[in-house]
Amino acid sequence: MSQQPEQHHEIHRPPVLRPGHSLLSVTEKISTIVLTRHTSTGWWIGFIVGFIGVMLLLLGITYLFIAGIGIWGLNIPVAWGFAIVNFVWWIGIGHAGTLISAILLLLKQQWRTSINRFAEAMTIFAVACAGLFPLLHLGRPQFFYFLVPYPATTGVWPQFRSPLMWDFFAVATYFTVSLLFWYMGLIPDFATLRDRAHRWGAKVIYGILAMGWRGSSRHWRRYQDAYLLLAGLATPLVVSVHTIVSFDFAVGIVPGWHETIFPPYFVAGAIYSGFAMVFTLAIPLRAAYGLQDFITDRHLDNSAKVMLASGLVVAYGYLMEAFMAWYSGHAFETYVFTNRFTGPYAPAYWSLIVCNIVIPQALWFRRVRRTPIALFFISLVINVGMWLERFIIVVVSLHRDHLPSSWGMYSPTFWDWALYLGTIGLFVSLLFLFIRFLPMISIAEMRELVEEHDQEGHGQQHAAPPLHEPPVGQEGGTPPDASPEEDRPPESS
Amino acid sequence: MVPLQPYFGLLAEFTEPEDLVAAARTVHEQGYVRVEAYSPYPVEGLSESLGFTRSRLPLLVLIGAFLGGIGGYCLQYWVAAVEYPLNIGGRPLNSWPAFIPITFECTILVAALFAVLGMLALNGLPQPHHPLFNVPEFANYASTDRFFLVIRADDPQFHETRTRELLESLKPMAIYEVPWV
Fold it and tell me: Where are the domains of chain B?
């Protein structure tokens, strides 16, 4: 009974790659975006907007170095403000890239192929933005290298029992491994660009980056081994990174921070916001560069499902936080939560609920999941919502301390906003440079996909009748079976 | 260095990956050892058909993981218990649960470095130039949609006419001599 709609669904599922592509057409389509001499006006506009943000960032950092972190809205009790909010927000965004490139690879999800490259780029740029904040927050940023365990003449060593040291190691490892993963994935594509570039300069630069890759079968074999192993290493890594970020809070005894649910809830939130950012980037990109053949509605549909699922985990996290606050009977915990709902920052809390829980429920409908503009809007809403979540965790938990005498309020200054908008500008300009100079879709992996589709196509032409057209005579008589091909013996002897 | 052979080898060009795999298998069965196949994407079974079945990379990554993990833990132990001991409320100096996150991160970091650098090292990369790039068809299409098989002239079995005949029997699109320069 339940098989019928299932089959129906299969038929109408859009393909991962629109049919009709060959090795050459895939290569040409993606490499031309990079190798063309013409830079579109849209690209310049986007890049300049991003670049203005970079200038704002540099201005904010310069003034910070001159005047110190007193230029921010920080105070006691709210000693962690925008810098930490933005740090957690950015690093969470990065996580979807690793999820797509590593976890979906291990799960053999073919649809990851055309979105993994720019999702990985997104990871690296987001982690770069994230990494700035803890360093700037140090107060004396010029001494950030004290975090590195090296034999100093002072004889002082870092405290390895501190979550802040764990954080340093986690973020540094995450950045390095993401960069390695990304670069390794790019090597065969650099070789393609080297071979297809007409200009001498491009040939030399891509040639150096390709390291002399020539597609030897032994090289491919080791390459695939390394890629798979790296995916296997990156999978626990990505979970560990946001877990450790959550330890920054959960290890402290502040009400609203000291919770065992933090690690899974942070990881789910990271995936949620990361997928939202993937949509925010992928939907305009595919429209601007005409990549609908490669980033099909199937990608959007599947990513939307992942986003919905992780969003529900986040919702569960909110619910459990509130439940535990009530169930524990702990006066401070209970107060922190009633304060979230009704206190001075209540509008932020209710906006968070609307952004992260209410509006994304639209993703239950397939029509919404197949409408790029709706997805784009929802992704923006989730980006805002996830930022608010971190604001609630960081600021709202701190502004009401154990002692009413030390209660305070936090309001961001111009310089807080300058750094936040500045990192968005940095992210945007890095991304624009990426899509101009590097292939935003993995060409080598798309070729594999073309070949697999070719083989599937041949198979369907020559072998058994297609799945979605059951023989007419059998209807009603025999029980409907889902896969006639599987039931048939492999070869009649 | 003066090369002993007049040219690097003979290169056969194919348009279909299946033909390349079949050709590689034939050439390997004929006893040629200095043979390599080239494809624009990883073709399943190609390296196996040339007799390359096991890469040492996984072992290398495992070694890297052990080095990273043990090194990471030892660093923390040495710093916290030997070089810079801080007595905080009489708690043990070797407080291993607090050392786990960094140990884990170091394990992943060193293993990942071994995976990528090991892959490059075992593949002999970076190697900016290779005689094969002297063949324009290889340089232009090997990374797009053509499949190549080269038999090196320094192969013990190599014979100018017999090897060429063998390659011709495999029905390639073309055969090229790969010049040294």
Answer: 9-53+129-178, 57-122
